[in-house]
Amino acid sequence: MKNQIDYNDDDTAYFEALAETLDAEKAKPMKKADINKPAVTMYPKSVKMLADYNRKNGTPNQVLKQSKNAKLSKDKLPVIKKGKFKGYVIYTLTLEERATCPRSCYHWDNCYGNNMMFAHRLQHGSELEQRIKDEIEELCATYRGVIVRLHVLGDFYSVDYVAVWQHLLTKFDNLAVWGFTGYAPNTDIGLAIRAVRGVFGERFSVRYSNAPTWQFSANSADLYKPEKNKSIVCPEQTGAAESCATCTLCWSAPDKQILFVTH
User: Fold this and answer.
1) Which helix (H) or strand (E) holds 26?
2) What are phi and psi of 256, to 5 degrees?
3) How many whole angstroms separate alpha carbon 101 and alpha carbon 95?
4) Could you tell me what percentage of the chain is helix, strand and coil, using 3-state DSSP and rounding each to the nearest 5?
5) SS3 of 79, please?
6) Which of 187, 200, 206, 221 has the greatest number of CB atoms lying within 10 Å of its CB?
7) Residue 150: which of 38, 46, 74, 63 has the closest Cα?
């Protein structure tokens, strides 16, 4: 027989009151200064359910967005300016921060998504993955090449999702990806990312965040200082490069760690 605890009426009332208190706490809006935030965005209304993510005329909104961020490119048509991916058009994907991220992320509480109230955070899962597949097929047929920044917010949320990008890179030789992950290299997702990079190299340039023992990493300038022949502060942030499109170090300098100033 399993052990059983008998509660009296006073105990029951206490636990009911505690549950109500916890529910009330969860319902309170998050604040930027909150510590140990729950695994959701501060802006739940900005999370877009794909079934309802349509334009006014009823046609579906694209989940992959052509970049309008001047940090990535200052051109009307955002294209890479040099190197292997010269001419590739920049697209981005935005997921829900914290909901798709490892709690070990250094920026869990002060994620820059805390300042992005109006960003469209897309519901992650199988429906999103199918939309990505459909859109990549169309984009790769339209442009000389496409490079996707993963992820403006959020992270790789499963091994199967990493496999989606592996499948797409196999199918479309004019597709490339760059970005960052908070998952450690020895986690299941981290190992999956390593495997895909091992096959596709520059075409899957996903750096590990705050992994200073890994050469191909992206680390916080709050924690680490640049070292000669080892690491460099992001040139776009220092003003040494106009944008990611004119810099390209995140994928073209695999022997250098990139340091980022918290923003």
Assistant:
1) helix 9-27
2) -120, 135
3) 10
4) 35, 15, 50
5) strand
6) 206
7) 63
What is the β-pairing status of strands 65-66 and 89-93? antiparallel
- Domain ranges in the chain? 40-210
- DSSP H helical segments within 59-117, as ranges? none
- Rounded to an integer, the average pLDDT of 220-242 is 94
Helix, coil or strand: residue 242: coil
In contact, 214 and 254? CB cutoff 8 Å: no
Torsion region of 125: left, alpha or beta (phi above 0 gives left; psi -120 to 50 gives alpha): left
Average pLDDT over residues 43-56: 93
Per the CB < 8 A criterion, the answer to whether 98 and 46 are in contact is no
* Average pLDDT estimate for 230-259: 96
Calculated CA dihedral for residues 216, 217, 218, 220, nearest 10 degrees: -140
Structure tokens at 206: 């996903």
Helices 159-171, 126-142: axis angle to 10 degrees equals: 20
- Of all residues in the chain, what percent carry a pLDDT higher than 70? 90
CA–CA separation, 129 and 161 (whole Å): 7
Locus of tokens 């690491």: 231
Whether the model pTM is above 0.85: yes
Q: Exposed/middle/buried for 137, CB within 10 Å: 0-12, 13-18, 19+? A: middle
pLDDT of residue 8 exceeding 90, the answer is no
Size of the chain in residues: 263
- Is the pLDDT at 24 greater than 90? The verdict is no
